[in-house]
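Task: fold both queries, return tokens.
Query 1:
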Amino acid sequence: KDLSVMSIVSKAINRQLISYISSPAGNRRLLCQDFHCAGFVEGGRESPILEHYRVLEIPCFQLGGCPTPDRCLGLLSYGAFLKILTAGWDELECHRVYIFLCDVTNLPRKIQTLVSSKPGIAYKLELRMRLFCRHVFLDNWNLRRDSAFWLTRLLKPWPMVNQARLLYIFYGPVNSVDGHIAWLQMTEGLAGENCLKGLADAIKLLYDPESKEWTADDVISLVDELSVVPNQWLLENNARLLILSGNSICFTFMASKAVNGRTADLGRMVVFLALVSAVYCAWRRNGEDSSFINLFHLVSAQANFHKEILYLTLNTPSV
């Protein structure tokens, strides 16, 4: 600690210290070679040694620098440091920090590589991007508006189709064996609540009134675009996502279908919402979630009303 203070007040000592740390001898002596051993976490709390590395530029703090990012605590420390550093800052100052981090990590170029590639082709980069963005930008905040701010920074520069792709990379389901993004989960099989909860929570975050950079139409368009990433989802999975996203988003999504004349899509979705809601209600018969029960009864009534529409329009192409 004394040496750290001296390096702050003396440029000469600072230069000597940086030179020594950068040398092979200094690197071996002062810098831990990895963050992967269990000893760094004791009783669920970070070891004090991690404090030493929060501001040092070592591979485990870089996007693509660590060979085993899924077992590394470096990015978690990076995110914790970012939270401490920007505590109390206004959005303009935080935006400048984000621009700086984009510059030093080449984040926009790497995102461009991902959204320009077919899903799953750059699977290593997809995993690294997910871990980097979640640990550094997205998972550390106590306030919803802070989480929404950083998620918005990551999504807003890109077209809607790319926003949906990125949202899936950040919060979509992953393979239980290797941790890679499970691109076919939504299109080839039924997704459980655990697979969809992250996506639903992110959608609710952007739909929140405090997320002033997103309109309701923006979020509904994003949900619509998400349902075809990488291909058309099974309708059961669409219905589950809408239910987990909450009543307001669900009803707004359905209203958007009606206003735009997509009666076939509306009829199909109402039926599957009723079916999926019935399953959820069977799990929650104790009445713990009255709003969800109300949703079930309303959707069930709508399903009966729209049954004839479904029969008439099932074979009609969507507008």
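Query 1 returned. Query 2:
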Amino acid sequence: MAEGGISMVRLLPALLLLLAAIPSGAQIFNRAEIVFLVGSGKTTAPGQPKVEGAITRTQIFYHYFKRDRDASLKIPKWVDQTLEAMLKRPVWQDPDEGILNEAQLWQAPASVLYEFFELVRKSLPPSDGGQLIPPGNLIKDYEDKRIRFQMSLDRLVRAKLGDSLGGRGRSVIAHFELINKQYDSVMDGLVNGNTQRYKDAVIAIAALMNGAFQTLQSTPRGFKFQQNENKSSQAAAVVFKMIGVGLIIACAWSIGSLNERKIGDGWERYKTKAKEWAHEYERQFVVIKIHYLVGGPMALGVLVGLLTFDPFGFMIFTGFGIYAGLTLPSWLLRNIRFRRGMKCEAQLMDAMILMSNGLKSGIDLIGCLEMVQRDCLPPISEEFGLCIKNYQLGTALERALEGVEERVQSRLLSYMIKAVVIQRSVGGNLTKIFDRIVDNIREESKLQEKTAAMTAQQRIQAIVVGVMPWIMLIIMFLFQPQPMREYYFSGLGVATLLFCTIWIGIGMKIVNKLGDISV
């Protein structure tokens, strides 16, 4: 213990010399930097305007959120409009301080920053209100300010005040988060005796605080003051827009009246096409009302267009609804045929093995088809079941099988049907033919799975290329609806949408082609 005491006594002078070696604020900051931190103060030359430093702006920031502030203080308009609501809105409950309102949460970090700048002032010369205390002697005080600032910032973040301050909350919090990082640099500079790092961090904190203060003076993008005097003009604008929509409808009605014969011919062509679509859907074992497929998107487009209360918006959504209604039946039919064909191909190998075993056991081809109908799952059981029914009604087996080939979009099934038709025409061992086709299908399936795995990235990229722009457009509409509506419901906006749609489609086609490998 005695030796330890002697060691401490020996180290004490060295520690004092080290602290004495740490320069004061007068040696760290030059004149311009001192003015930037604490303002010109008493050192202002005669006839020169007084310069506000970061400490003054921090103090003003704090007083913005006080009800009994100095009447001579210039306050932004939005502060007076929102202060009462902020003072009445409880947003945080502290075990020691009780319930805190929104204004108090914003005052807390400003209060800590003001104390921080006062701490920096202690290292400045007396002419600037300082005491020439070396910053290294104030490490504990700096650490206390850092911890308190972190706590006040954590409250702001956890209280989710990003939309506070009339839409400026996120920007101010971002400034405070950067200040919090600079606090670490301040402590690092003090602990390691790195005066340059300490100086840079203090200047950075002052600059960031000035940035937060300037944020309160500016209007955030997309934010507008609510003005009661504009309600009548807004209502008039809505009325005029509705009149514009009505004129568009009346114009379309007039054009339709002048071209009644052409519209009648088009309607007849549509009914013929609708019957063809209905027949094709029935061949895919799907019963659906074509008029619903066509009229549903059209009605939805018109409804959404009316809800926009904008002529351009009405034209855009109505046009899109008409296009979707006219193309949806054929697109859906192709999709159903493709998926049904893929399912049949997946079941084809089992069906052919079943038929091959049946032929080997002495069952004829019709009996083998009945086995497939009875033992396999849809859709292949449905297709062969319909083939058998057609055969029983008098249709030739070859023609019934060709009907299956027409209904099902499957290359492998087409091979099997052609093999059966050829065998019945010229003869041959159908069992061996089936076995060979099964082997080919098995090898081709392995190759298809391998190529699908190799081209998965291209397929995902094609989806991202096609979907991501529209997702971003929706997100932008959600966050900035008014500017987006004003742009995209204008002539230039419509042209932009058409241009982007065309090139997005081209991009999807190119990326899909990169991963398109024929097996």
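Both queries returned. Flag for query 2: Residues 338-450 form a domain with the Receptor-associated Protein fold (CATH 1.20.81).
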